[in-house]
Amino acid sequence: MGDLGRVRLHPWFVLLSVLAIAAGLWRDVAVLFLLILLHEMGHAAMAAHLGYVVEEVSLLPFGGVAKIAYGWIGFRPRHEAVIAMAGPVVNLALVVFAYVVHALHGWDDAFFHLVVEQNAWIVLFNLLPGLPLDGGRLLRAARVRSVGFELATQEGYAVSLAIAAVLAALGLASLAAGHPHLGMVLLSGFLFAAAWRGRRDLAMETVRFLDAKRRQPRVPERVRAIAAPAHASIRDVARQFAPDRYHMVYVLGPDGAVQTILEEDEVLAAVFAGRWTERLADWIARG
């Protein structure tokens, strides 16, 4: 069992909270804070249960980010999917709890609807299929074994950029209509910034994935074949590697015939020997 880590308020959360309190919505902020904290604790508790060390939980306006110490969470699809679902499941459980308490003890209607609506918005937003949202992690977990870690991650961030654009357009439309929705614009900005940073850091994340892959204990895995022309670089091949699979690389000559077959361990050894940009043909010729 791991550690649940410390809790930190992200500047975006503080900014929106100050604006909401200034507008007299202090109760909304208090409820949102509690619901987001419980949502993120769901992620952290599941991660800790699976043996990860949660260094920090950062609360954001729509949810949060659980910072996990160096590990294989994004490199292990099953774990990523289970941890991603833990947060929304907590919110859904809170909705059921609210209905039960309201039915048995007659909660104030306004407060009851506030709790249900905020939980619903947290779940709906977090299940949008873009990274780093929970839905994006579920999408990556579903795709990563078939397309590889780097491409599945690229797809997740591309979807986030599209979602951010839609949210920005809706926010501007609400402004033009005379009913400005500041929260939508701010969420769009956050999502865009997070996706941009993720895309910027993707090459390093791929290297971390490959490093974890070469270090993990060998267990029975399905074999995944990759066909690559001899003029392709080692990077072109390695960036297609996927978790939970052992790769065999078929190197093709100009005529399309198989020249040789490389094992995953050979490619990973070349990557961390500094031959990242070397062509397969040159590497094979060196022996």
Task: Walk me through the structure.
With 287 residues, the chain is α/β, with parallel strands linked by helices. It has three domains: 127 residues, no CATH class; 68 residues; 67 residues, CBS-domain, CATH 3.10.580. It contains eleven helices and six strands. The strands form two sheets. It has a three-stranded mixed beta sheet with strand order 1-2-3. It has a three-stranded mixed beta sheet with strand order 4-5-6. A hairpin with a 5-residue loop joins strand 5 and strand 6. The protein is elongated. The two termini are 46 Å apart. The mean pLDDT is 88. This is Peptidase M50. Keywords: Hydrolase, Membrane, Metal-binding, Metalloprotease, Protease, Transmembrane, Transmembrane helix, Zinc.
